[in-house]
Structure formats: structure tokens, C-alpha cells
Write a structure and sequence with these properties.
The structure holds two protein chains of two kinds. In chain A, 46% of the residues lie in helices and 14% in strands. By secondary structure, chain A is α/β, with parallel strands linked by helices. The two termini of chain B are 42 Å apart. Chain B has 17 helices and twelve strands. The chains are: A alpha/beta, B alpha/beta. The A-B interface holds A 13-14, 17-18, 20-21, 24-25, 27, 30, 32, 72, 74-75, 77-78, 81-82, 122, 160-163, 166, 169-170, 172-176, 178, 215-218 and B 15, 17, 19-20, 23, 26-27, 30, 32-33, 39, 42-43, 46-47, 49-52, 55, 168-169, 179-180, 184-185, 188-189, 191-192, 195, 205, 208-209, 211-213, 215-216.
């Protein structure tokens, strides 16, 4: 099985190689990259192309590694014991499998997405070392061992908010998704908005890359923001000429709110526009 | 063969282990790539490099392993007109005018040719010869900003541009100075160090678990509270030569302020004397005697000084050395007092590390701080935080 671009997701050869290596050598793949470069989408596209189940485990700051394995619902058991429920005698009734357990016991080799692992506590990745390495864990309450029937394809994404421990990194393949160039970006847009006017796209991309070239921006607009912006341009029926005019006059592009998410960035661009207008006079 | 490749990669500072090297060999054995050098590059990077800040190091390692010797041969093959067009492309009109007044492009090219002839062998490092990794205006992989790049980019007609030659990840390298993006990373490193606080609070879910395990008998479980107990005392050098580094200091300042609850900030000029100020403007009403500071804050505070430490040596070691007022005690005395009161102290210096040896005052202060002066870069900051944790 190999992973390639399809009608919904454009994958660079580099990324395809990374994914295929992770599938073949059965190791987790750690993906980093600017926000909005399609890290999470990758797992969805991969599950689609392998025609298998996608198990998504979204990590929050309060998530514990144990929750991915299983959870022991002590409160239910306590309540049942007060009510004299017969279920209370079997502890297995109160053990809920987590995402890793589900992935290990799935009938067909699934794709497991561990999304934004950097959001969790710093000890989180260390707690998963053995489980990801051996693909097995013990359930202490019942003395049972859960072992993977087949090793799931594990995709892990990170936004770089915390450094991951070396021991964890050694067990993963690592790929950094670079921001796409103009050619790749127009392919991506084509996938999301088929039939977009070529002229509008060229003008929009030019404005977009000019915007990204400003190094002082606090938050550079990414692919997902570009696509939102293009949708808006189409909806508002902005013509390529209007875009071009705005750019040449050094003004802010129409509907800039979709691209700039920070009032300091907007202020910065307004200032630059003002300076360039004055210089043109 | 690949063992040498692995060693080259490690020599360039990429910390990859044998496990990862074996992974690479396994991937090759599995036939993931075959006889394609670009794909091999990608696969090797996938297996060996685990951090995008190391991508640039890896690129340099590849360049050395695959192309090292090739560079010079290529240089001698470059026709004049290609060089000329390549240079012209990079010059602004103003630069061109300046160049004309200095004798024109021909002379620069002539100098280049002359050096090419004088030079008999491959050369790496240094600042005159054409070679790799130096600061000469001619050569490849160097750091001369305006030099003629030879070999690194390829001529386009003779040789395909190699991926690693583009060095697209240079901006991500971590010994680079702080910028808006890398600020987030710096913050993350500070956060790691901020979690070492300890306190006791009731762990409700564990209590419920333990109670039910005991069949309903109440069993209280306590856990460490996750609050930030670290106390920071930040002293910032302001004005004068620090004006060049104002953005860097401000960025770090903002990062620190967002991160720590117990944070006290004071300002000084050049060196710490008997007075510190609470505001950047250093108005008299904001002044605080340094001796009061020493008495107010306990030695559990961690002291961070940010300053370029670039001044006359007498400003540190002699009474009356201050450039602003007459100080009856030398700056050195005050710095020593600070270090004694706050055993966990570091000095962050925004001056690039390479320049330090040129300023005696930097050496002096570094000695006063027991060599705990670190550059204000991501790596430096991380070292400083480790020093503070000790």
C-alpha cells in the first residue's frame, strides 16, 4: 500500500515518502509544521486512501496517557455497589477502552491520529513510550494484557509548543511540513475550490505571498486561511482587477480579515500602506 | 560506506543514535527508495533528524558528504557572463552605482580570477581563499552576506540544484537569535523550568478510586499542585549601546512576563550601582536603592540580568567609574553582592558570542558571574535556564 495525492488532499513527494516509510517500518510518524499546513488532514486522507478506520485522539492540556489506554470508572462502581447491582463484582464492567486499545484490537489495521501532542503535560510522551514501542500494555485491574493484533499506523502532530523528550523522538520518524510553494499551493486550492477563475487565483496568490513576505507579522496566514479568503472573494464577487488595484496602490487587500488574525498585524499593514501611498505621490 | 555518512551527520551536530541509523538501513533494505539521491536525502532526514532546527545542520552534512570536492572544479568552469548576471541580480541600483565608483564589476571579477589562480588546492574555512564555510566573499556555505557564491547554487545548465544546497531550513536553525516565531520556543523552555513548584492539594479522582477500592471507606489521596512557584528578579540594561538590542530584550521580557507570576523587574544603565529603577524612563520617583532590593527579595529569587556588558573596564572596577554620576562603590562590588544574595543568577548577553572576546568588560562580568553569562539566543537561553535550575 502506498500513499499518494488524491482528489481531496495534495501530498508532496517528501511527505508521501515519510508516510510510506512509517507504514512499511511500522513506526509512528511525527509531523510538525506551521499551523494550517494540513497536519491533521493528512491522517484523514491517509485513512481514506487505505480505506480503513481513523481513530482520532485529540490531546488537551488535561489529557493523561492512561486515558488513551483505558479508564477505570470507579464512580460508577461505587454507585452500583450502593445499589446492590450484580455487575459490581466484575471489575471488567467498569473498564472503558481508550483510543489506543481500540486501535490495537481493530479488525483492519487502522490509522491512529494523536493530534497536538504538545498540548499535553510534558511527561505525557514519556508515558506512552512503551505502549508505542511494544504496541502492548497491561490492564492492572484485571491482570489482562492488551496486545496489538497488527500495529496501527500512528500519526502524531505537534505545534511545537513544548519540546518532546529525546527518548520519544527516537521511536518516531519525523517530518516537517514546509509551507507549500506557489505551484503546490495552486494545486491545493484546486482541490478545495475546483473551477476557480485562473486570473483571480494568480492575483490572490500574488497578494498572499507578498503578505507572507512581511517578516514582522505576528501570525503569518496559512493555507487554510488562504482557502477561506478565496471562498470569501468568490462569495463577494471581488474581481481580479480589484485585487490587482489594491496591491499596486499598496493598500490592504479586500476582506483582509480572513487572512490577518491579529489587530497589530492589521495596524502594521495599514502603516506600510500609508507609507507606500505617500511615497507614490 | 553509509557509516561514514552517519558519522558526517553526527559531526555536524545532529544528535542521532544508532537505533535511528539502523532504521535508515532497514528502510533502505525494505526498498523504499532506490538509486535516487534526492529521495535518499529525504529518507535519511526522516530517520536521522528529529527536529526542524537541525535540518540545516543535516543539509550541511549532506553537502560535505556528497559534494565537498566537487565545489572547486565547478568554480573554475563558471563562465564570466554567468557570474556577472548572478551578481547583477543581487545588487540594487544604488549598489551598482557604488560599485562603478570603486572600479566596477570587472575588477571584482578580476580579483576573483586572480585568487582562483593563486589557490592551488581545495580550501575550507578561512577568510581569503575561495572554498567552503569561510567568510571570504568568494565561495560556498559561508556566512559572508554579500559574497559571490560559488558552487553552492549550481549553474543551472551544468548541474541540477541539489536539495540540500538550497538550505531552506536555515531560518529554523536554533543558534539563530530570537525572533517573533522563536520567541514561542523560548517561552516553552521557560515553562519547563517553571513547573518545579510543589504543594499539596486533594486529588479528587484518585480519592474516589482509592475509596472505591477500599469498598467505600474514605481514603484521601493528595497530589502536587501544578502552580508556578518560581520567583524571578529581572534586571534590564537600558539605553546607550543596548538600543541596538531593544527588540530582542523586549521580546524576551514579554515572554517572561506572560510566564511568571512572581516576577520583579528593574532597570539599570550599563552596570548595576547603588540605584535601580522600576521604569524604563528611570525617573527619580521610580528609583529604588540596590541595598533595599537586596534586603527585600529572598535568595529563593532567581536573578536574570540582561545587558550587553559592553563598557569601559573602569565602569565595573573603580569607584566613580559610572558614566552618569559619581558612584562611591564600584559596580563590581554591587554585582558581587547581587551574586551572593541570589545564588541562582545568570547574565544574558544579546551581543553575538563571537564578539565577546573583544570586550574586556564582558570577560570581567563573566568572571564575576562564574562564567554564567549566556548569549541571548535560543540555545543560550536554554543553557541559562539549566544553570538556574542547578
Amino acid at each position: 500500500m502506498s500513499f499518494q495525492s488524491n482528489s481531496r488532499y495534495i501530498v508532496t513527494p517528501e511527505l508521501a515518502l515519510a508516510v510510506n516509510a512509517a507504514i512499511t517500518l511500522q513506526k509512528p510518524l511525527l509531523i510538525k509544521g506551521e499551523p494550517g499546513t494540513g497536519k491533521t488532514e493528512l491522517a484523514k486522507a491517509l485513512a481514506d486512501s487505505l480505506q480503513t478506520e481513523l481513530l482520532q485522539w485529540h490531546i488537551k492540556s488535561t489529557t493523561k496517557a492512561q486515558q488513551g489506554l483505558y479508564e477505570y470508572d470507579a464512580v460508577s462502581r461505587l454507585r452500583d455497589s450502593q445499589l446492590g447491582d450484580a455487575r459490581v463484582h466484575d471489575i471488567a464492567n467498569y473498564i472503558k477502552p481508550g483510543k489506543l486499545w481500540q486501535a490495537f484490537t481493530a479488525a483492519k489495521r487502522p490509522v491512529l491520529l494523536i493530534d497536538e501532542i504538545d498540548k499535553a503535560d510534558i511527561e505525557f510522551p514519556n508515558d506512552l513510550l512503551h505502549e508505542l514501542d511494544q504496541m502492548a500494555f497491561d490492564v492492572y485491574e484485571t491482570g489482562q494484557t492488551v496486545r496489538a493484533l497488527q500495529r496501527p499506523v500512528v500519526i502524531i502532530t505537534s505545534n511545537n509548543e513544548k519540546e518532546l523528550p529525546d527518548a520519544f523522538l527516537r521511536r518516531c520518524f519525523f517530518h516537517y511540513i514546509r509551507f507549500p510553494d506557489e505551484h503546490a499551493l495552486s494545486q491545493i486550492v484546486d482541490v478545495h475550490l475546483p473551477g476557480l477563475c485562473k486570473q483571480l487565483l494568480t492575483e490572490a496568490l500574488e497578494s498572499f505571498f507578498a503578505l507572507r513576505a512581511h517578516n514582522q507579522l505576528r501570525k503569518k496566514p496559512s493555507t487554510s486561511e488562504l482557502i477561506d479568503w478565496l471562498r470569501l472573494l468568490v462569495a463577494e464577487q471581488i474581481s481580479p482587477e480589484q485585487l490587482k488595484q489594491a496591491r499596486e496602490q499598496g493598500g490592504l487587500m479586500p476582506l483582509f480579515g480572513a487572512l490577518l488574525k491579529n489587530e497589530q498585524d492589521v495596524a502594521l499593514l495599514e502603516k506600510l500602506a500609508f507609507i507606500s501611498k505617500r511615497a507614490a505621490r | 560506506m553509509l557509516i561514514r555518512f552517519f558519522l558526517t551527520v553526527r559531526q555536524h551536530g545532529v544528535q542521532s543514535s544508532i537505533t535511528e541509523f539502523l532504521d535508515l538501513l532497514r528502510a533502505l533494505q525494505a526498498g523504499l527508495v532506490f538509486a535516487d539521491i534526492d529521495q535518499f536525502y529525504q529518507l535519511a532526514r526522516l530517520c536521522l533528524v528529529k527536529n526542524e532546527t537541525d535540518y540545516d545542520k543535516f543539509d550541511r552534512a549532506c553537502a560535505e558528504y556528497f559534494a565537498g570536492v566537487e565545489q572547486l572544479d565547478l568554480a573554475s568552469l563558471i563562465p564570466d557572463d554567468w557570474l556577472q548576471s548572478s551578481i547583477l541580480r543581487e545588487l540594487s541600483d544604488e549598489d551598482k552605482a557604488k560599485l562603478q565608483s570603486l572600479g566596477g564589476l570587472e575588477q571584482l571579477l578580476a580579483a576573483f580570477k586572480q585568487r582562483l589562480q593563486e589557490q592551488q588546492e581545495r580550501h575550507a574555512g578561512g577568510n581569503k581563499w575561495i572554498g567552503t564555510g569561510g567568510s571570504s566573499p568568494f565561495g560556498a556555505y559561508g556566512f559572508h552576506p554579500e559574497g559571490i557564491r560559488v558552487g553552492q547554487q549550481g549553474s543551472g545548465q551544468r548541474r541540477a540544484v541539489k536539495v540540500w544546497d538550497q538550505r531552506q531550513f536555515q531560518a529554523l536553525a536554533s543558534d539563530e537569535e530570537l525572533n517573533t516565531r522563536s520567541l514561542q520556543l523560548a517561552l516553552r523552555q521557560l515553562r519547563r523550568f517553571a513547573r518545579t513548584g510543589a504543594a499539596q492539594e486533594l486529588d479528587i479522582s484518585a480519592t474516589v478510586g482509592a475509596t472505591s477500592a477500599q469498598g467505600g471507606l474514605l481514603d484521601l489521596v493528595w497530589q502536587r499542585e501544578r502552580h508556578n512557584a518560581v520567583k524571578i528578579l529581572l534586571l534590564l540594561d537600558i539605553g546607550g549601546s543596548m538600543d541596538d538590542y531593544i527588540t530582542q530584550s523586549r521580546q524576551l521580557f514579554q515572554a517572561v512576563r506572560a510566564e511568571f507570576k512572581h516576577l520583579e523587574i528593574f532597570y539599570f544603565h550599563n552596570c548595576v550601582y547603588e540605584t535601580l529603577w522600576r521604569s524604563e524612563q528611570r525617573r527619580p520617583q521610580d528609583a529604588l536603592a540596590t541595598i533595599d532590593l537586596l534586603h527585600t527579595y529572598g535568595s529563593d529569587y532567581k536573578l536574570i540580568l540582561i545587558g550587553d556588558a559592553t563598557m569601559g573596564p573602569y565602569e565595573i572596577s573603580y569607584p566613580g567609574g559610572s558614566v552618569e554620576h559619581y558612584n562611591s562603590e564600584a559596580g563590581e562590588v554591587w554585582l558581587k553582592r547581587l551574586c551572593r544574595q541570589f545564588p541562582a543568577a545568570v547574565w544574558l548577553n544579546p551581543q553575538p558570542n563571537d564578539w565577546w572576546s573583544h570586550y574586556p568588560s564582558i570577560k570581567q562580568i563573566n568572571q564575576l558571574f562564574d562564567a554564567r553569562m549566556y548569549p541571548l539566543t535560543l540555545d543560550g537561553l536554554s543553557d541559562a535556564i539549566n544553570a538556574l535550575k542547578r
